[in-house]
Write a structure and sequence with these properties.
With 209 residues, this protein is mainly alpha-helical. The protein is built from ten helices and no strands.
Length: 209
């Protein structure tokens, strides 16, 4: 890939990672609720989901979601229902556990899994990759599928850095705020509202990028 194209791709990837969307808002809320390390674990899950989307684009599977309304609708319904489930968990979480010396925290594996499910069940990501990555793949430079995997890997690396920064900042702020059980309850309610908003955003999404 020409150096100019590479820098253009990296610059565009950074901007796209910074634009408020379901994934970075998800990282922000989870890090604020559970902590910096936990936010990083969610980020790793989201990036693993991007590996799935990259593979789907490179192997031609992502085109199914662009061509099939049934497949697109089915996947977004699954994603919306999962977010509503997370909203219910947030609304029913109790800060009283903090007062008892217990922990409201989820395990690293649970948070990692949340990130994967959140990303994989959003068909808009596959369609976005299907529109974005091919713009930088040049057939004269070699097999297009290999270029797609390379571009996807660069995008994932950028996402890891940007989302990781969001996780660290939100986790630090959350650690200061949630020392009070009352504030913890407020954070849980805010997270629940955010999850409902994200669920509605995914459920009402269309196949346009």
């Amino acid at each position: 890939m020409p150096v100019e194209s590479l820098f253009t791709f990296l610059f565009a990837s950074v901007l796209l990672a910074l634009v408020p969307g379901p994934d970075n808002i998800f990282v922000l809320t989870q890090a604020a609720l559970y902590g910096r390390k936990e936010g990083i674990q969610v980020t790793l899950g989201l990036c693993t989901g991007l590996v799935v989307h990259t593979s789907a684009v490179a192997l031609g599977v992502a085109a199914i979601f662009q061509a099939s309304t049934v497949a697109f609708t089915g996947l977004k319904v699954i994603g919306a229902v999962y977010l509503l489930y997370l909203a219910w968990q947030a609304f029913t979480a109790s800060a009283s556990l903090l007062e008892d010396g217990k922990s409201n925290k989820l395990s690293g594996l649970q948070l990692y899994r949340r990130g994967i499910i959140m990303n994989v069940t959003n068909p808009k990501v596959s369609i976005f990759f299907l529109a974005f990555l091919p713009q930088f793949a040049i057939p004269e430079n070699g097999p297009v599928a290999q270029q797609m995997f390379m571009l996807g890997a660069l995008f994932i690396l950028v996402t890891l850095v940007v989302f990781g920064g969001i996780a660290l900042l939100a986790g630090t702020l959350g650690a200061c705020l949630k020392r009070s059980p009352r504030v913890q309850n407020y954070l849980n309610r805010i997270a629940g509202i955010v999850f409902i908003g994200l669920a509605m955003k995914i459920f009402t999404a269309n196949k346009g990028v």
